[in-house]
Amino acid sequence: MNEYIPLSIINIALAAGFILAAGLASIFLRLGIEKALGIGALRTVLQLGLAGVAIGFVFEWKAIIWVLLLTAVMVLFAGREAVSRLKTRLQGSGLDAIAAMTLSSFVVAVSVTGVIIGADPWWTPRLFIPIMGMVLGNSLVGISLALDSFINSCIDKRNDIEARLTLGASANEASLPMVRDAIRTGMMPSINAMNIVGVVSLPGMMTGQLIAGADPKDAVLYQIIVMFMLVAATAGGSIIAVLLARRRVFTKDVALREDLRM
Q: Strand, helix or coil at 260?
């Protein structure tokens, strides 16, 4: 029996009471975040509303060109968000983040829809777009953490890197410890999520399916696939982003850039 309950604007208005309560708490405790809460709530409604219209259009037309166009827009916004989270900006970081997300997310999403799930065609909008959105949202966090860790490590450990270069190490050898640490940092949120899923938390996709009336067994199987694909996308994206960034922190003379300083 399908127990799905449709929602209306009244339900959304009632849910907005949670934001109002948080805002009132901020005012009472003088936290100063009531404005940020209001802007965040407004952006949530507008962005999800626009996304719903765009996705509905793509679902209706079912053409690969619209699927790819919407995917490109999602990647661009994800790359911009990833760079905005960096404490230290490096020229070209935006391009690195976008390239890493595009390659890792697209490969993983196509593999899931076309091979693991076996959708025909692989770009079936109802499957590909939600999966791509989940992959991008998760890899965004990992990539931004990895890039931030790598850039700041190169700044903090500049003397160590330059000492290795002086002793004859290549740029790759001198920066290898920073690369490894950065990739580990980017991967940790995904690894931690796997350790608590189903015990401490029920992820969004599984929860959504259960609310929509899906069989719990099917919801679990889909969620397992989702968890594994998120780890793969985050790993691939973090590795690509850090390796691309490594090329930017060194000059053609195999020296650290002068602007990489505290």
A: coil
